[in-house]
Design brief:
Helix content: 25-40%
CATH topology of the largest domain: Immunoglobulin-like
Number of domains: 2
Distance between the termini: 104 Å
Number of strands: 17
Order of helices and strands: HEHHHEHHHEEEEEEEEEEEEEHHEE
Number of helices: 9
Strand content: 25-35%
Structural class: alpha+beta
Strand order of the largest sheet: 7-10-5-3-14
């Protein structure tokens, strides 16, 4: 019996292969320190560090179980996953040398083509930015409302342009900056060549008889005069539709009041367009009150 016991004592304890990287990721995700894990398992922090760095690819099974318990996961989650026969057979062999050579040549040809395309694209003269219109979403008939057209120009590509804005039927301009050459239904500006951005500002009124509930449409274009004396016509982008009704233009969502989100944009517009017929005092009074009401006879009435 003594001999049998000696043999049993010499039998090595079962070991398992652990995945150090997975162990470290689990520990860090759970915000556990190496010292805490080492105390639970009953080893040193140096041992934990070596396990996480795969210095010991296999350890005693009971230590592995203690490690899993410390990390609050099952034992299977920290064991190394060996490739199955199916995974090994699914690995594709490397292409033969001749095929690799063909792939390399095709890659070089593709890189050359892309390089040539970039070269010719970069040699093309820069295209001036299109003009963009800002107009309010709402306005009342007979009341002035602001419109701005911004044209971005760069020092590297200066140009002059003609701006034309076609007005809604019956609308009339109140004022503009810079001054405009106006016709019955169209405003015009001639802007000399330069490389700095331009903002054209103007105020409009649709007639008091304009049908409430309808949209007043603005359409425009710029004729760009480039340095090589060529002309190109571009449509003005941005908002070109203003809904006409019992609204103030600064009431951007049409809810019958001017709130904190609307007052600052209105202030900046009024500052940029001083002297063009916008009534800042009324806007400020509506913002300070509980809202407003509009009718054709009395205009805007502030609700207290």
């Amino acid at each position: 019996m003594a001999e049998t016991n000696d043999k049993n004592e010499k039998v090595p304890l079962p070991s398992v292969a652990i995945d150090g990287t997975r162990i470290r990721n689990i520990r860090e995700a759970k915000k556990l320190t190496q010292l805490y894990v080492a105390n639970v398992v009953g080893v040193t922090t140096d041992t934990i560090s070596r396990w996480e760095n795969n210095r010991y690819p296999s350890i005693k099974r009971d230590n592995a179980q203690k490690l899993a318990d410390a990390l609050e996961v099952s034992l299977d989650e920290i064991l190394r996953q060996e490739l199955s026969d199916t995974d090994e057979t699914s690995v594709q062999p490397a292409p033969p040398p001749a095929r690799r050579a063909v792939v390399t040549v095709l890659a070089v040809v593709a890189a050359v083509i892309v390089g040539l395309l970039l070269f010719f694209l970069l040699r093309q003269p820069p295209v001036p930015a299109s003009a963009t219109r800002w107009a309010p979403r709402f306005a009342a008939p007979g009341e002035p409302f602001p419109v701005q057209v911004k044209v971005a120009r760069q020092p590297s590509a200066p140009f002059g342009f003609i701006l034309r804005e076609k007005l809604p039927p019956g609308a009339r301009p109140v004022n503009s900056l810079p001054a405009t050459s106006s016709a019955d239904s169209e405003l015009k500006w001639l802007v000399p060549s330069a490389g700095t951005p331009v903002t054209v500002s103007f105020t409009l009124q649709v007639p008091a008889s304009f049908n409430p509930g309808k949209d007043a449409a603005l359409k425009g274009e710029i004729v760009v005069h480039s340095a090589d004396s060529s002309n190109r016509t571009e449509t003005v982008g941005g908002n070109g539709s203003v809904h006409i009704g019992a609204y103030h233009w600064a009431d951007s969502n049409g809810d019958g009041r001017i709130d904190d989100d609307e007052i600052m944009p209105a202030y900046y517009i009024c500052e940029e367009m001083k002297g063009l017929g916008l009534d800042w005092k009324t806007i400020e009074a509506i913002w300070s009150g509980k809202g407003y009401r509009w009718d054709a006879k009395h205009g805007y009435t502030v609700l207290k």
